[in-house]
Write the structure tokens for this entry.
Amino acid sequence: MAAKFVAYFITSSNAILTDAAESIVNVLASSFAFYSIYLSSQPRDENHPYGHGKVEFFSMFVEGILIMVAGLLILVKSVYNLFTPQQISKLADGTIIIAAAGVINYVLGHYLVVQSRKLNSVTLYADGKHLKTDAYSSAGLVTGLLLIYSTGIYYLDSVLSIGLGIYIIYSGYRLVRRSVGALMDESDTKLLQRVVDILNRNRKDSWIDVHNLRTQQYGHDLHVDCHVTLPYYFDLGRVHDEISQIDALINSKIEEKTELFIHADPCLPQCCHYCRMKNCPVRSEEKTTDITWTPVNVTRNFKHFENDV
């Protein structure tokens, strides 16, 4: 941030000021992200039985809003300077400083994104994407500054700044959209597909069907709840074993720490036509079909046979 403001003061370039102003947002957002990561790592307590992980989504929301505000202010100033241009000097020196700052931001942003995937942290992801966005805008800025330097057409400075402002606003919107979806427990289709694939690949005959499956992300912790239909003649001990096997299966295949809440349903005669249980002592009809679990049929809140009718 300091380097970019130095570049602005020696050049008076509105486009460079645009990049420097966004760096203020980087510093503010990273400060909030630092606190949110600390808070999300705290253990559960009586007031937060699901932990503090959702503060990371709030951190992403704040970062996105700050980015959008910065982009809007940049846009307003750029349009103003398009009609009231100011003298630009030492453009080559400013371009070198911006290029160096952009490289540093990209390296740090890439590192944060890589770590966010290892640690399953949306805050690190948001901050990393923000820094990479800043690096991309710096790359575009450097290209534009070189064009201005070589052509001497200085009004391009404000035109370039307007383009960067629009790009920054869009980047902020994407972060806000993702954070709001997470705070409202929007379904993560990729995560849901992963859980369904694991269940299909490791399916036991006694797991007659799975329905009302839901996934929720709380920071780096994953919560899954569902209903599993089991043969009604299983005793309580056998039911507990079957449920524990599903719990162990999901936790062994998914990198995130996963907490499962599984409700056991007894089978009904209408389940027989797709039940895989061999030598079932209470079967009322032969198995005539096989139902593959999909994100569509496992998320509905009823047994599969109700959907088949």
In short: The radius of gyration is 27 Å. The chain has two domains: 2-183, 189-308. Residues 109 and 131 are 5 Å apart (CA to CA).
